[in-house]
Amino acid sequence: MSKAANPNKPKKQETEADVAAKKQQADRERIRRALITLGDENKKVVSQVKAVVAAVEDDVELHGELLCNTVLACVKCLPTKLSMYAAWLAKMAEQHPKFAADVVAHAVDELRAAVLDCKMGSTQLLLRFFVFLANTSVLGVAAVLNLLHEVLSLSEGLKPSKGGDFGVFMALAQLPFLSQEAYQQGKAKVHSLMAAAQRYLASRGAHWKPLLQLWKGDRPDRLEELFAAVQQQQKDNWSLKVVLHVPGFRPSADGMAEMPAIALGISREEFRKSRKLQVPLMSFHLLTDPSEEVPMPTKDRWVLEDYILLTVEMFAKDVDECSKQILRIPVLHPHFEAITVETLFSEMFRLPATAFLPLFYYRLLEACAAKQASMKQLIDQAFQALIHKVQDMDEECMYALAEAFACHVANNNFKADWKVFTENEVNPKVKRFARRALERLQRLSDYPNMLVRLPQAMRIYASAEPLPASGLPVVSKPQFGRLINLVRLKDANADLVVQYCQWLMKSDTKEPEAPASSATEAPEEPKEEAEPAAKRQKLAEASKKEVLERFGDPPAQPLTLQEVAELVMSVMLQQGHKTPTHMAKILDGHEQVLRQLKPEESDAGYCRTLAKCVFDFWQAHGQRLETTIDSLVQRKVITPLAAAEVALAPGQADAMHVWNVVDNVARKSLDRSQVARADLATAKKLGKEDALAKCLEPWVCLLFLGLACRMLAVQGRAELDSAVQESASLFTSIFTSLVQKYEDASKDATLQGIFLQRIIAIGRKHLSDIKPLVDAAESRIPRVKNHPDVAAVFKMLSTL
Fold first, then answer.
1. How far apart are CA 324 and CA 78, in angstroms?
2. Backbone angles phi, psi at 466, to 5 degrees
3. Which GO molecular function terms does the record list (predicted)?
4. Is the dihedral of CA 135, 139, 141, 143 positive or negative?
5. Considering only CA atoms, which of 762, 768, 754 is closest in space to residue 732?
6. pTM for the predicted model, two decimal places
7. SS3 (DSSP) at 144
8. Which secondary-structure segment (H or E) carries 562?
9. pLDDT in tens, 422-469
10. Which of 101, 145, 350, 355 has the greatest CB tally within 10 Å of its CB?
11. What is the domain class of 26-270 according to CATH?
């Protein structure tokens, strides 16, 4: 019985161990809170640092490990507080040098792991922490700059496509955070770093940059902009307004004697085996103009953008908290909000792929606007500026903008500035953008409600009402009405449907067989007794009569497999059209019908027939089309290749759902290859472990285990080969279809540009998996070499 039910129940006596455990837990929470909230109060930073030192310095012996882990976790998550944690550690080192040395040693280990995993955010923040430790004399300036030299040397001999940007970017990105005194002490090493970076940039040969630009034009990426920012900082005597240096601390050339060495200790061979960083382009200027009276200098702007990007990376799991952290960035400038909006929009359209879904960045913008009302107008202005540049925008970025704009319209009660779409002469690409935005909007809102709330001038861009197609030729066939009574949502009888399909494909000269469930089937007679001819005739007539009653009149000519497949798929779509749940239940009950009808040898035509039925039936409802095709591919009823071939067949509209289907089947095909590769690696690993254990286990068990591992490896290799071959065939077909569409649109430059952009988008997104095909495009993809523009696109893709 609980205390509330029986208030007179005596309290449980706490033991000394319970009291000690509670006190220890309270102490741990106090330590965490003290470190995490360092710098949050509206007081002088120095006094806050001293207060936290006084609060936790007596806990070093008992909770030293907790202090070390907590401060490093804060370092890897809070980019604007690194100088405070460095100052705190400098104060702690005065009384507890061993503890400070342990923190530095753990930070070096964490840095080494982050570099090997190419974790951009963690690597930047840990290196930056070392720079601030040099600013506060915990570490020597020379030692930290040597560490940056070691990081930069990882890029030597590597091209950008092989990870060459990583070391240069990581080393340069920490220089703006050196204090003026630290710069003066290590000026020679800083200049040496900058010279090495300049040599790398001169030999970089970034011919792939046009593939990663939001719109046409020569725009520097973050590495080039970073180098320009550091050069500007050097000209300005290493001054920077947006970086906080805690007063009262001075750097030293050697640092504290008790501190350990901070060498990275990673060979180039180890680094080359790790994943590589691809430096994105710098944010674009939509709302700010460098020619204004009070522009933010390039060096300060780069650091502010870096604060924003790192904050997004660290707090992406919580949009609300992420928006709070962004708005708390301690930078006072009239352009702070505008630069924040520009940076988040830039990340929304980052190529070749965004770190998070584009919708995440829009939600983050809305969360910032909810807390800072003045940002709402800036977001509206950014949308308008982007829409005016749609004609020069990358195709994939245009789709992301359409999705974000649709969400923006839906969240603002359909209020927006529609003038750009309703002017007398509207650019064709702007019209296309409007159609894409409304296609996305109708997925967020009820269609009739959307039409009512949209301005009259915008309704011309809306697609047809999302309803299933009516009047398809297959509906007029007499077998359609009979089959629709057999394909049921409840009490599904797949065997009966299969029998009917087989009966439709039989020749009319043969006598139809009665269903297996027929109650009038004659019992077996002993073989020695010959059945009278009259009785056999009577049974045959009864069987034929039952078949005719159940299946109706036979067709004049036997139906082909393609006709039957079209009939069955059309009936299933009709029975499951109400909701996706209905369709899922229909497939659950009748999936085996489609499997049993599927030919064993060549199923390409069969799968294309099923996919074409779905495209014809849901031609006006893109969302249902995508979900239905996805479900059929997931169930392995149709192949990704068949879905892509039908989606890109001549005559298919340039619609959002067409490209979504192509992207989805391409991703699923590559996912299969990755799963097969992982399974094969697991089988090989098990085989190696088996070999190592032979001396410890009975030989019989090991024999069978070894055989099983070898069988798994053989099966895994076969599955991997099949998956790789499927992916190669799929992408070859996709590119071939796009080249054919480009060729057919010879009289329409706009359409040709769209198909070139689609080739770029697909190749750019999946390049790591299809690099051999892209490199050999002229020999493996028909008619590529006949079109210089297409060949140039594939050549540029191969440089990524």
1. 12
2. -70, 85
3. mRNA binding; RNA cap binding
4. negative
5. 762
6. 0.86
7. helix
8. helix 561-575
9. 887 888 899 999 999 999 999 999 899 999 999 999 999 998 899 999
10. 145
11. mainly alpha
